[in-house]
Amino acid sequence: MTPTLELVLVRPKEDGNVGAVARVARNFGVDGIVLVAPRAALGPEARRRSMMGLDLLEHARVVPTFEAAVAGADLVVGSTDTSTGRSNAYLRRSVSPERLGEMLRPLEGTVAIVLGPEDNGLGRDELRRCDLLVHVPARREAPTLNLSHAAALILYGILRGRAPGDPASTPAPESVPLNGREKELLLTRIADVAERTGYPAHKRQGLVLLVRRLLGRATPSEAELRMLLGFMRGIARRERRAHG
Predict the structure, then answer these.
(1) Are residues 98 and 29 in the same domain?
(2) Which residues contact 220 (CB under 8 A, 6 or more apart)?
(3) Which of 45-59, 99-113, 162-176 is least confident?
(4) Rounded to two decimals, what is the model's pTM?
(5) Does one domain contain both 114 and 51?
(6) Is the pLDDT of residue 144 over 90?
């Protein structure tokens, strides 16, 4: 009943790091790896360091763009080495790996865990596309982790947080099916209604990002998304009638 986990590596620079990530991905139950425009070919060093993760490495999907990598995901979780607790700093608000594991426990669907390149991390546009961010706490004077170390800590936290309950217990563990397509449609509808109702243009991108992160933390079910979509359709119909 746990979700399918895909590990997305954006523009990885060192093939040895990719191999090491494949190894920890196997350790912690990742189902697949996606490489976005890798900057180094996967050579002998990557295979040597992958160890028991060689199968994941050899079957890694290579895509040219970030959007192509996450297009099939129901929930996109980006990693960041800079986090903030400020309520209005939507771009960088994050959860811990353990909290992420707890959130993923009842979910069904495909979850993409995204790690940025070794030299500069995920860009702002990529962060905006993420539904949720995860941050590994570290010392302020040295907050950046090696790619494979970051992957290991995040995946370890997920594994601990999503430890399965007893399906024979009462009540049985809840199952929450995700639907990434309807989530994206809802965000599009919200942006459309914001435009139609005259919401300030310079605030619309921030509004959509705020709602994306709210949905990322709440992980609404398919049925809940459909109800929200129905509500948004009702607003749109009323707005069209009001304007003839």
Answers:
(1) yes
(2) 183, 228
(3) 162-176
(4) 0.81
(5) yes
(6) no
